[in-house]
Structure formats: structure tokens, C-alpha cells
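Box 3.1. Reading complex inputs
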Amino acid sequence: MSEPLLTVENLQTQFFTEEGVVRAVDGISFEVNEGEIVGLVGESGAGKSVATSSIMRLVENPGEVVGGTVRYRDEVLVGFEEGPDGERRRSPEMLSEAEMRTRIRGREIAIIFQDPMESLNPVFKVGDQLREFIEINREVSKAEAREIAVDMLREVGIPEPEERYDDYPHQFSGGMRQRVLIAMALACEPNLIIADEPTTALDVTVEGQILDLVRDLQAKYGTSFIWVTHDMGVVAEICDRVNVMYLGEIVEQAEVDDLFYDTKHPYTEALLRSIPRPDQTVEELNPIEGVMPEAINPPPGCRFHTRCPDAREVCRRAHPAYQDVTGDEPPHRVSCVKYEDVGYEDSDPLETAATGAFGGGLVEARGESDE
Amino acid sequence: MSRAVARHDEEQVDYGETILSVEGLTKHFSQGSGLLSSIFPKPKVKAVDDVSFDIKKGETLGLVGESGCGKSTLARTVLRLLEPTDGAVYFKGENLAELSGEAVRNHRKDMQMIFQDPQSSLDPRMKVGPIVEEPMKAHGLYEGEREERARELLEKVGLDPHHYNRYPHQFSGGQRQRVNLARALAVNPDFIVCDEPTSALDASIQAQVLNTMRDLQREFGLTYLFISHDLSVIRHISDRVAVMYLGQLVELAETDELFENPQHPYTDALLQSIPVPDPRAEGRRGVLEGDVPSPIDPPSGCRFRTRCPKLIVPAEYDLTDAEWANVRRFVRAVDRRTFEASTGRAIRAEFFADAEPRGDAAAVVDESIEAILEDDWDRAAALLTESFAENSVCAEEKPAYHVEPEYGRGEHFAACHLHRTKRAD
């Protein structure tokens, strides 16, 4: 197998707030290979968006990337080393802000956000925004850039591209604006596109159109994607490999088929059981009990143990290692003590909202009670 | 203690009987106000146009459609939070559309609504207990036992009754939606309109709230009109489902029937567009093209016809299915200008390689290709639309048919002319 395009190792991003340090992304590792769509899935607050902005080095105050490595081909986007006094400092290989801007963002790695209206400037014409972007990043003349822009608009399925070139963003529908952003992301032929919930704000028929478009374009240009979403349907539809995030950590990583059919982590399993299905009648939904705890004060041991139906005493003490459990290629990594030799089998079941072990049959749907 | 939540109904409607009946309900909005627009009136937005359906006591009617199709306007007009332009809404036999303001207010205690955003529908400066008591006060009900009832309701919706004195910001999104549920139940309503109640919630929390809503329905004999754009949620919660497109109902059937045997091309397209949480599910076929037309000037006849993959061939042309499919693809491409004009031969090769129309249809295609080569796209588009799209039965008549259901025995309404032959026999 070829070298990965992007490697993320033990990435940590923290927010220094008045209430304390929020460990929004806490040591995640994954890689993206050439021509692959890698999913990053989780509920709100899991840290998906912080993870992607950390890769692009777009985290804003009070947030800061505090550790780990992000390597894109031979470039070090994020890197740290130990100083003489044992303190952590930026490694000298790490690209400067100017290098990130001129060499990486847009040209090598592009990003598409959820809300297309916020990514487009409302007072400039759509076509001109696209043209300017191409002009700056591809060093072509204005006229050439305009031609490329019109071609890109046609490519992503904007009707009457010559006429629509002179429209303003508000004259476009939500789906068309998202197409423009895809055109913009593709315009500089990047090797990797980070798509942060790009179809979440769209209607299902429009979402279908966009997913089809992305698949076609991906086949044509061989672009890799990191696809951030909370929708398991979209994951199943488009991703090759998936990372499941919970409270700042990746808890499971597998090929898409294995994730659905050979699920290893109790959180992934619970998530899959809790969603209603469009293709079959589900009589009773099995919700995950409770709510995701605050990242400012995560539970000790395994972070999911407070809501986990399989939780045992040991889950509260031992922080599970994130490891491959199948030995196959590509690996199926899980972070759960069930797959470790730390005495899960002999441990006593834990009384949580989800296990209802000592509920005496009186299991009320009161899972969200936060006491 | 349970006395406080016990039902007290004067005008009881039995289970399975119609509790709400909507007939030809229409809501048009005028655009702009003031002197100028009264002199130069702008065209009206036809948000809801001639919608009819019944809801039976104890059932959940799901209402599904894409944003802007008029779901929320319909719901608000049913509750008369908006004045209907035309049509009638019978609730327990009385026409709400004709009642005076006072009489409608009296009825409001039987009909409640839950909104999408649990945050903005709760007053941040009120504690949740008083929030739940508010509707009781407004209707002068449960004097003296309001606090007890509020605590009891909080428990019923799955919250801790001790949270009576907390503020909305101290709860999570799912818990806030539970407070909304408790408030809606406070006046012991029969009918609740739920407008995207779980759309703002995460998957795992959504399941908790949906389960609670179902339990409450069974316990209190509630009737829901459940609005959502999420077909998975609709399938889970509904007994019957109505599909809305551009202000009108296109299909209404029992849930299994609608999902397993959809009879309207729009429903079919919707169902095929949903990403299924199963990587082994077969790939989607034929996603809808184009955007929803404007509700200011909706298409004549069937409103879906401009995007319909099954548009019926006009009677005067004798075309095979393949020829007609090519013609429609060509019409759409010209309309959207998705290709560049090169030569007549190239255009033919691109669109009519496998089947080229003959006769009158061929003449129209030839003329429009000439127009394109002269760079007169507008003339070509107009010619094609006039000759093909506007001539179809889909453009001439508003469809309304009843189909024999394959699943269950409930009525199956489908507004599609493909069923017109079935009516004849």
C-alpha cells in the first residue's frame, strides 16, 4: 500500500476557558490514503469540527493545538518537540503560518463548510468570487480564470453557468450555493478536501444530488476526502473508512462495511440501534441513555462508561487503549477495555442509566436526568 | 395524585373516529405591505393550495416534504394561528375557520403545538415549573392544583419533578424539548401539532424523545400531526403519512403502504434519495434533478411535472419510451443550458444516439436545434416547452386518484396522472 496522503497522530486541541481547560480533541490518530473518502462521525460536541480545523491550523483563540503531529506528504502541518527544559514547543519543521496560507490551504487541502451562505461573501458576484480564488491560487490571467470558473460551474451542475456567473449568492438556492463551494474547493485541484457537514443543511433530494456529484467528481479527479457528518446514512453511502468520535476521542475506526456489520465498540453499536430506518419498520428505538458529558470534565476511565450498556467496574478505572483488534489489513481499531486484558470479564457490572442493572424492572425513560 | 392528570372530556370523540378534518384548505400570502404595494400589487405566494385530509383520534399523521413546501404554514393554518384564505378545518365537528377569536381561543386548550427549536420556544427568564403552568393559567384551568400538576407532568415526560425551579438554560436540548412536551400537555389537549420536534436533536437524544412521545400518546390518547423532513423519523412515528410538494398533497397512505408501494413519482424520488444507514444497501437510482419551482407561479396541472421523471407523453405525438426519454433529457438540457452548441450532428449524437423521434416531434426537435445553432437558446427552450411539456396531460389537469393499496386496507391517495387508466377500469 502506498504512503498515506495525510497522517494524524495523537492530535490534541484544547480550549483555555475561564471555567477551565476543555480538551475538545484529545489524542486522535487516523490517516487518509490517496483517493479515499474517510468519515469522521459523531454527535454534536464530539469534537469533529475542532479536529478538522486543527488539521488546517484554523483553531482560534482560546483554542490551541497543544500536541501531536499532522503530516501531509512530506510537509509537517503540526509538529511538536521537547525543549531543553522538557517543555513542549513547536518543532522547526512545522510550516509557518505564511507557508500554510500559500502552499497548503486551498491548493493542497481545501475545506467545505456546512453553511454555504457564510462561506460566500453576499456583496460580491458568485462568479467573481470563484474567479478571484482561481486567479490567486493558480496564477492565471483574469480572462483565463473566468473561463475556468465558468467551466467549474458547469461541471458542478449549475444551470446556465454564463448567466449565473453574474448572480449574487442570495439568488442561489442552498443546494446551488453548496455546489459553488464544491466548485471552489475543486478549482485548484487539491489532493484532499475536508467536507464539514456539507449536506446537513440541505433537503434530502438535494443532498442526494450533492452526494452523487461528489462521487462522480471523486472518480474523475481522484481527490481524497475527510467527510465530517453525524448522519450514519451518509456514512454508509459515501465513505470508504470511518472514524467514530466520542467526547474528543476516536473510539472506533474501520472499513465502512465492518463498522456496520462487525461493530466492535458499544457506542457505535448503540448509535446504530438508536436511529430510525427509512428502509424498514422499526417497532421500538433503543436510545442511548443519558447525554454526552461536558468535555471540560470528562468521566474517568473510558469516557463512554456513564452511558454504556456493557459498563463494568473496570471501565471506570482503566482508560482503554486504542488498538487494532482483528490483525487484518486495513486495521479495525477500537478503544474499549473489553478487548484488553485488564480484567473486564471478572469485573462487576456497573450501575448506570444504560445498564439498569439494579433498576428492579422499573426502567423509566428518564435517561437525560442529569443528576 | 393522578387525579390531577385525569381526563375530563365533555365532547368525547371515540378512537378511530375523525377528530380533525381539513377540506380544501388554502393559504396565500401577499408580498409587501403599504401604499406602493396596494397600488401595484405583487403576485401572491401560494404557500398552501387546496389541501384536504382527515386525522383520526389516537393516530399520528406524518406530514413530510422538503423545506419551503408549506408544511409549517399548513400546520399553523390548521390551528388558525394563520387566517386561512379559503377552505375549512373541522375539529370535533366544528369549523374552526369560521369561529370568532374568542371561540378559537377556547378551542386552543384542546389543540397544542410543539416547535422545532426547543431553545427559542421557552422563555429564558422563567423557571420550567411556571412555564408548564402558564397554559393552565391562560385557560383558567386546575386552579389550586397547578404546581402539583406541573410536577406530575414533568415526571411524565421523563424529567425529575425536583427540577421545577430550574431555568431552561440548565437543561440540554432534549430535556428542553421535554419541557415543551409537558407544557403542551398541561391543558390536557386531544390534538398536538409537532413541527419538526426532534430535528435539532442528536440521533441518540432524538430516539429518547420519540419514544417518550409515543408513550405519552398511548397514555393520554393523543392525536398527533407530526411534521418532519426526515423520512426515517416519519416512518417510525406515523400511522399514516401525507407527502407534500409545493403547497399541495401529492400522496397520502398508511405508513407501510407509502414506504413499500409509493405511487407518486415524487414520493418515489424522496424515498430513493435518503441515504440508508447500511453500506450493503443497493445504490440509489435516478436522483431528482433541478430545484423546486417558485410557489408564486407554480406549474399548472401537476406541480411536480417540471421535475418529474415520468412526465406523460402528449397525446398528439407517437413516441416510444426511449424516444420520449431522450426528448425529455434534451428539453431539460436546453432549459438549463448544460451543454455547449457545436454542430447539429454533435447535439444529435449526444441526445438522440439510440432513439431519434419521428414525425411531428422530430420537426420540433429539428427546429429547436436550428435555434440553438443560431445561439437563440430562449427560442429553442420556449418552443420545446410549448410543444412537449405544456401539452402533456400533466400540465392540463390537476391529478387526484385513489389507488388500491397493497399493504393494509387504508385509503391510498395519489395525485399522479399515471393512475388515470386505472380509474377507467
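In summary: Chain B has a mean pLDDT of 88.
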